[in-house]
Design brief:
single chain; about 650 residues; mainly beta; 20-stranded mixed sheet; 8-stranded antiparallel sheet
Length: about 650
């Protein structure tokens, strides 16, 4: 079972797998088991990958890189290794066994791990970090990884990677085997990057625009559903982009839209069984944004390991995969989409060129459909199947492959393939597949989107995006009672705060945690709300609010009978907010002598505690009170 993890840089935390946790280097933020042993293992000797082995792999990779036609970003190579936990430096303390493995690969700008035979004991805790201690993965908790036998990690900066774990006495012995190491040759660059600087470091072109800039303001929520994808084909490390998609059932299946050519690793226009199996080691990283319009730093990211193939259509360069057992919390945004034939009047792309923080590109005039068949890199687009784009802001570069195209309504209408656009020059167009042709053109369910994004065949051609979160709780609050509100799908191990308004209506109007209990005072009246504030890796925080009304109604409710023209006419009456599980006494007045019969009508789920053929009744409301009514019919011999 694969899970999701949070990655943080320099005193900032990293969450690991689908039970996201806020991890920081500060000891006060470590879990109880990690406290007191984190820095004990400092005197072990690293396992060194020989220079000869590194150079051999690099030499062979360079030969292949010179001939590859792939347009996604190549940032490093794969080095096979054979390292297991038995090679760890180990010591014990009164609580358990401590183990550490350090691996050094000289010259690397970054390293990542591919583990098999991965089987941590139930109460084991593991962390992975670099020598400068400014990048941490973990704690990886054994209890969250039952029946998980493989693990792939994000790139950890530097040439040394450290693995530490703690196993309490009484637990079975943990095992893992490091099968491969990803060796990053040039972070933020790539083996196929033609723009290498003289210092050997490069980044995306200056025309690229951070998503925090005004151009990206309309995509505020959509950004939380964009993935930077790291994957390997047995020889290279690649980077591309993808997007989290919603579906018409709103059941939050974590589908990722990306490019067909990012799965077709040998460029033979088919996705083989072997290429599908490689998806188990794909890494999907979210929230990789700069904190401002100008900065290129990123304080944090959340990563998920592993996916499964769902569908792909080569003529639109579309691929749909599903994250493996990823329990994405309320911070993630499932993007909406539009598969109608309408072309966008404005078109935006959110992408990670050269493995960098998220960028936004815009075509102010929208896109148009290709009017001739065209080859773009490895993809053949028949007539009408592609968006043709002439960027006004930003551009595309290696690493942008698979990035989503958004229309003016913030709905995805396609994904990026490639092209010949050049920053600052009005020459060359970019191309990407149209979702309208990916929707239902394929002849089987594994070659189209409709079966997965509209599983109940509703016929919807467009949906808005949404978060898998919110607030559950009552809509009516009664005086002198306690009520519980819950944040739906909260992230783990982060400090969530809540505030209720108006503050003078409650004995306590603020607190922390994903559950809030409000004690309503007798003076409460009118309307109120409760807001949960959730820490967010790139936004600081996001909020979820629930509104409610107060009821300070006592147990006695007077019902007035309207007398007009000497006739007894039922009155429409007033609207009252009734509390659940409460006894109420309804009393009609005045009691006119000409009334010969009384007939009360109450909702089916209310409990009648007295006869209903009198000028008064006593009832008890159910545990949940819905919008409903009470009707009183009065009769005499002449008029009803």
């Amino acid at each position: 079972m694969k899970k999701c993890f949070f990655i943080f840089f320099i005193s900032i935390s990293l969450q690991l797998y689908s039970q996201p946790i806020d991890y920081k280097w500060y000891e006060s933020k470590c879990s109880p088991l990690l406290k007191g042993w984190f820095n004990e293992l400092i005197d072990n000797v690293p396992i060194t990958i020989s220079d000869d082995r590194i150079q051999e792999v690099l030499k062979e990779s360079t030969k292949l890189s010179d001939t590859t036609t792939k347009t996604d970003l190549i940032i490093g190579v794969i080095i096979p290794v054979d390292i297991n936990l038995d090679q760890a430096f180990t010591k014990t303390n009164p609580k358990g066994r401590l183990s550490k493995i350090s691996i050094e690969a000289k010259g690397a700008k970054g390293l990542n791990l591919y583990l098999d035979q991965f089987n941590l004991s139930q109460n084991c805790e593991m962390i992975i970090y670099n020598d400068s201690k400014d990048f941490l993965v973990g704690p990886i908790m054994g209890k969250d990884f039952n029946n998980t036998f493989s693990l792939a990690t994000e790139i950890i900066p530097g040439s040394v990677i450290n693995i530490e774990l703690f196993e309490p006495f009484g637990d079975k012995k943990s095992t893992f085997h490091i099968l491969q190491i990803g060796y990053v040759t040039n972070k933020n660059t790539g083996l196929n990057n033609p723009y290498n600087s003289t210092e050997g470091e490069s980044k995306s072109s200056d025309c690229e625009v951070n998503v925090k800039c005004p151009t990206g303001s309309s995509l505020y929520n959509n950004r939380d559903g964009i993935a930077k994808i790291l994957y390997q084909d047995g020889q290279y490390l690649h980077h591309s982009t993808g997007a989290l998609l919603g579906n018409t059932s709103n059941n939050f299946i974590p589908y990722i839209l990306t490019a067909y050519h990012c799965l077709d690793l040998n460029s033979d226009e088919t996705i083989s069984y072997l290429e599908k199996s490689y998806l188990s080691n794909y890494i999907f990283s979210f929230f990789h944004e700069s904190p401002s319009c100008e900065s290129d730093d990123a304080p944090a990211l959340v990563s998920c390991s592993g996916a499964s193939f769902i569908s792909a259509y080569k003529y639109t360069d579309m691929a749909l995969v599903q994250l493996n057992n990823a329990n994405l919390d309320c911070r993630f945004f499932y993007n909406g989409w539009d598969v109608s034939s309408s072309m966008p009047t404005d078109l935006y792309m959110l992408h990670h060129p050269y493995d960098e923080v998220m960028k936004v590109s815009r075509d102010n005039n929208g896109s148009w459909a290709n009017n001739v068949g065209i080859h773009v890199d490895e993809t053949w687009f028949p007539v009408g199947y592609a968006h043709v784009i002439d960027w006004n802001v930003g551009s595309s570069q290696p690493g942008s492959s698979g990035a989503p195209y958004f229309n003016q309504n913030q709905k995805i209408v396609g994904q990026h393939t490639g092209g010949w656009a050049v920053c600052f020059l009005s020459i060359g167009y970019d191309y990407g597949g149209r979702l309208s042709y990916s929707w239902n053109t394929g002849s089987t369910s594994d070659s189209r989107l409709k079966d997965w994004l509209d599983p109940n065949n509703t016929g919807q051609l467009s949906i808005y995006g949404r978060r898998n979160g919110g607030v559950s709780g009552p809509s009516i609050l009664c005086a002198n009672n306690n009520y519980q509100f819950n944040l739906i799908n909260p992230p783990n191990n982060v400090t969530i705060s809540w505030t209720a308004t108006p503050s003078n209506a409650f004995s306590q109007s603020s607190g922390t945690g994903s559950i809030a209990t409000l004690s309503v005072l007798s003076s409460a009246s009118g309307n109120g709300s409760i807001t949960f504030s959730v820490p967010h890796p790139s936004k600081g925080s996001i909020s979820f609010t629930s509104n409610f009304s107060f009821s300070n109604l006592t147990g006695l409710i007077n019902i007035s009978i309207h007398d007009e023209y000497n006739n007894n006419i039922p009155e429409m009456g007033n609207t009252y907010l009734l509390c659940p599980n409460t006894i109420y006494h309804f009393l009609a007045s005045p009691i006119l002598p000409q009334i010969s019969n009384w007939s009360w009508h109450i909702p089916w789920d209310w409990v009648l505690l007295s006869p209903s053929n009198s000028y008064e009744i006593i009832i008890r409301t159910p545990s949940v009170v819905y919008v409903n009514y009470v009707r009183l019919d009065v009769f005499n011999s002449v008029y009803q």
